Amino acid sequence: MSILDHMFNPVNIAIIGASNREGSLGRGLAENVLESFRGRVYLVNKRGGELHGLKMYREISEIPDQIDLALIIVPAESVPETIEQLGEKKTKIAVVYSGGFREAGRKDLEERLIDTAKRYGIRILGPNCVGFIDSWTPINATFISRERQGIPEKGFISIISQSGALGSLFLDLLSYRGIGLRRFVSIGNASDIDLSEMLEYLSHDPYTRVLGIYVESIGEGRRLVDIIRMISKYKSVVILRGGRSVRGSRAAQSHVGALASPGKLFDDVLRFSGVYIADSLRSFIASLEAYERLDRSDYKKDVVIVTNTGGLGVLTVDSLEDKMISLKEFDEIEMKILREIIPSYMAVGNPIDLSGDAPTKRFKDVIENLLKITRPRLLVIINQPQTYAMDTENFISFINELRNKDPNTNMILLISGGEFAIEFARKIRGLGIAVAEDPEELSSMIQALSITPIHGEPMISRLENRREKGIKIIEKALKEGRHILYEHETKELLNIYDIDTPKRFFAKDLEDIEKSKDLLRYPVVIKIVSPEIIHKSDVGGISLNIRNYEELLESYRRMLDKLGKYRIEGVLIEEMIEESLDVFV
Description:
This protein is α/β, with parallel strands linked by helices. Helix content is 39%, strand content 18%.
């Protein structure tokens, strides 16, 4: 049993700092817990009183039971003392909502909090967080207002957020899209229970199928990457990172008390771990919706678009191409059949533009016939419902019928607009269909779904192995008193990191050249290798367009005769790239 089980499935809960004052966070937290949790709840407030008929104890010591889970929402200075009192009650885990610790320059106070908790064996979530939600227990241990924002229904997506306010926004947006929630955790300063520990715990949760993560500062880089890579083999993972810019990193320091991690390098390592790195809030939420409603597969090829709006179709194609997502090219037979079912005044191609006067029947006729002649990896249906021609209720029935009749057809709808379109999209989502609200969301969805799990050697290990090989090349040069690598050494270094170079052979003498005779395809280039020659072309140290072995021998002898005064290590023989562009890096 994990210690975190006591947080998500507690025997009882004590709320220290509960309040009956309207508008206070202590009251909001208490009401959320009392509304959702079915177990025993104890309220503690030094002034006493009651809330909704439930007594508020003045002291923790007055509570008649041991305390499984404590929720602490008192001033920061009082938190260490509160932890000591909870230690006497054998408390397993405490959530500290209070701010005013490391993020406010009080690193000393945060250290005192953690030291006190360790003495009593109490694990800490936070401080400086908004709490957590488990939709299955159920328990809502946040101070988020249920009147002012949506809380998702029971589902299979878990969210971990370093930002509490942004985390509550995620919940609101998930609720708006009808996306179900398994668990939500705001880790705040993560002084004890950190992102890696929470991820590892959720990785073993059979009801968490998708993980969404918002993070600014990461102090456990390698461990985190290894855990994420392990999780991504059987769960979908989406990461949104804050603090990627210089100013954003500084803002993160005042937010969670730590500088954000270096941007591109960390993102690239995570990308190699099989996760989707969202580049915006919209793409983060859209990709979570896609993962909930479609299986991961390579949808980046052979996408077919059917649309009733030419302009939005064009913008969609632009957005897809920006993300390297390609449309299906119809062959002659498919084009012939499509011409027979599409009105003559409409262009036949991809996107298939049904025009703005298209009712549901036209969508139905074209899509049903289309699926008889081809099986696209992904069908994108763009419906701009603002025209009088669009009979939306019939269209909803058609999409439901299509989904039930042909469940193997992978589809995403794109519906944009104001109140009417939003309500239309809500009904489509109610069928379990993913809906993008603009072309950028659509391309983000497809890009996320096309990421497949990474198997084999962990990315960090691969990088370290490559680094060791690269260091040996550099150390050899330094040992020989050189501060410049030979060309063949530089290209070997590039090859270690999967950068392609022309096929080559280093030869010290004529005997080595004889060995290379059948290893290369002509034409080839021969280049002198000498520590005394940097710019080979300036001294005649390069011979191009060598067509056969005899020309190679002749070029080699001529080069040695001409450059005999230099210290020659050998020659580099390479296959010649005839049509090329030379670039100095």
